Amino acid sequence: MQKQDLRKEYLRQRKALSEQVVEGFSRKIHDWFFRSFAVHSFATIHTFLPIKHNNEVDTWLIIKTLQKDFAADIVIPKSHPNGTMTNYLLTEKTVLEESNLKIIEPNETQNSELRTQNSKIDLVLIPLLCFDKKGYRVGYGKGYYDRFLAECRPDVMKIGLSLFEPVEEIAIDEFDVKMDYCITPNKIWSFL
After folding, report:
1. Which UniProt keywords apply (predicted)?
2. What pLDDT is attached to residue 141?
3. What superfamily in CATH does domain 3-190 come from?
């Protein structure tokens, strides 16, 4: 199936989910993550902040557990109109703001000392609309994460978070970056 068709269909399906269902699925994904990965072995973990009006996986559940029980640095992205992202440490001092796309992001000016190089990141939690059984994903179509992942170390662990199980196959482009794993409410898919 073509990406634009999958994008429309899974945006529709996700928006049809109730807040309670998204929260329940997000809790299951949180539990799979902490039960199945050696989280303590990662020094720096990148995660997206959820876009609530798009019913994204609530990564705040994961962030709060990381902050409470683990010593890892948490970094979050700031997207730019040119299709790139920069990353900033998430601390009690991090100033967050809502972008014109209604995405919660770090304020670049007020967080400049918290900027983190991609080379320091050990694990990336990746947003997506859907994914296939080979480990490729469909996002919103702007290519932010494919560009970002291409700039990370080759050994960075790439874990997608999905509210839905995979489709059979996605028509991929040469710049698409394959995930190592994808966590759904029902299981962890491995692509290694």
Report:
1. ATP-binding, Magnesium, Metal-binding, Nucleotide-binding
2. 84
3. NagB/RpiA/CoA transferase-like (3.40.50.10420)
